[in-house]
From TrEMBL:
The lineage of its organism: Archaea, Methanobacteriati, Methanobacteriota, Stenosarchaea group, Halobacteria. Keywords: Cell membrane, Membrane, Transmembrane, Transmembrane helix, Transport. Its main location: membrane. InterPro entries: Bact_Polyamine_Transport, MetI-like, MetI-like_sf. GO terms for cellular component: plasma membrane. Residues 72-260 form the ABC transmembrane type-1 domain. It is a multi-pass membrane protein. This is ABC transporter permease. It comes from Natrarchaeobius halalkaliphilus.
Length: 272
């Protein structure tokens, strides 16, 4: 242990120990993704790490794998549905909770803690029972609705952080100049909370894109999403093709983060 601290003292920065621990955590989190990405270039049919060579063979074969392409598009559709549905819900819920004295406010606050307190498998089973009683199992929109229900607290948190930071005097000034409620909202309130809306929307898209447990419970073979298809595929055969599919999936999620950085900045994303 003493040797560890002697080494870290030689590192640049005012807090070398913390910097070292953060770097180790980043490596620990990135290592599985790096391994999958490297394995996807394996030229043979058997997964090996390190690979025997480097080849784009499996990436060339991806366009011919219609089941993976279809599952990817279904995942994108579900994530888009989840994102679009969460925007009006998040805005109205955040404004209502912050600006108005509403009934059952404590119940709503408890609901916001559900992603951290209720296991996803429990939420999935509950939603499966409800959708089954309604007779809507087997529709892709039910998957998007289920993912919206379990992830909507993240959207509300994101928008709420911007509503709390909004100066109410700006809205009062607009009203004093003759603007009505709708004009004030679209010209003052909405532009001010836009960073939180964009951040929450992108979070909802990524969560909807990557959700596995609830999707596994609710989806049927006809509407299977890509995470579920990858899981069912590796149970029978692990090939570099699956690694290539997973790598493309990671790239899509990474692009969503880049979009968030370009639109609102990562600092704003983390604050939200």
């Amino acid at each position: 242990m003493n040797r560890f601290f002697r080494i870290t003292r030689k590192l640049p920065g005012s807090r070398p120990v913390i910097s070292t621990l953060v770097a180790l955590q980043i490596v620990f989190l990135m290592l599985p993704t790096i391994v999958v990405f490297v394995v996807s270039f394996q030229p043979g049919d058997i997964v090996r790490f390190p690979p025997d060579g480097l080849s784009l063979q499996w990436y060339y074969e991806l366009p011919d794998e219609s089941r993976y392409i279809s599952a990817l598009w279904r995942s994108v559709l579900v994530a888009t549905f989840c994102m679009l549905l969460s925007i009006p819900i998040g805005i109205l819920a955040a404004l209502g909770l912050i600006r108005y004295d509403i009934r059952f406010e404590k119940a709503f606050q408890l609901y916001f803690l559900l992603p951290f307190t209720v296991p996803l498998v429990v939420s999935g089973v509950i939603l499966l029972i409800i959708f089954g009683e309604m007779g809507v199992i087997g529709n892709l929109w039910t998957v998007g609705l289920a993912l919206t229900i379990i992830n909507i607290p993240f959207m509300i948190w994101s928008v709420t952080s911007r509503v709390n930071a909004l100066d109410s005097e700006l809205e009062n000034a607009a009203k004093n100049l003759g603007a009505d409620e709708i004009q004030t909202f679209f010209n003052v309130t909405f532009p001010s909370i836009m960073p939180g809306v964009v951040t929450g929307a992108l979070i909802m898209f990524v969560l909807g894109l990557n959700e596995f447990i609830v999707s596994l419970i609710i989806t049927t073979p006809d509407i299977v999403t890509l995470p579920v298809l990858i899981y069912t595929s590796i149970r029978t055969n692990i090939s570099p093709l699956i690694a290539a599919v997973a790598s493309v999936y990671v790239i899509v999620a990474f692009l969503a983060v880049i979009v968030a950085d370009r639109l609102v900045g990562l600092d704003e994303l983390l604050q939200s």
